[in-house]
TrEMBL record:
One of its GO terms (cellular component) is plasma membrane. It holds the Pfam family Hemerythrin. This is Hemerythrin domain-containing protein. It comes from the Bacteria. Residues 6-125 form the Hemerythrin-like domain.
Amino acid sequence: MSSIKEYLSRDHGRCDELFAAMEDAAAKSIEGAKAAYDEFAGETERHFQMEERVMFLEFEQKTGMTQGPTAMMRHEHTQMRNLISDMGKAIEAKDKDKFFGSSETLMILMQQHNMKEEQMLYTMAQQHLSAESERIVDMMRSMIVEQ
């Protein structure tokens, strides 16, 4: 059994690896980066939805905090979704400079965001939700991404 913090932190690492693979593909050929982009964008969206549709809701119900850390994380998810969309548009336009401008901004935002989640929010969630940890991780594992 893995804890909420372990499960989501491990998934951050997986998304980071997909991000690096996407950047490597784009450096070689912006046209050839589409498949790597699609995988990164899809898996990152899945991660966001696991948090937003499961963990954040469970945390908010347990603590009553709806305008605290989860509200800020949702706001940052929106910012990251916009940057990911911009990167997809740059690939379609074959605009390597725009792609790497957006990816650099996204990388900085992701690093800061992931650090806040891993060091603060996931720790708080684990403290408040430890009795439900296995059920919550199972729910996140079984999620199907809504488009």
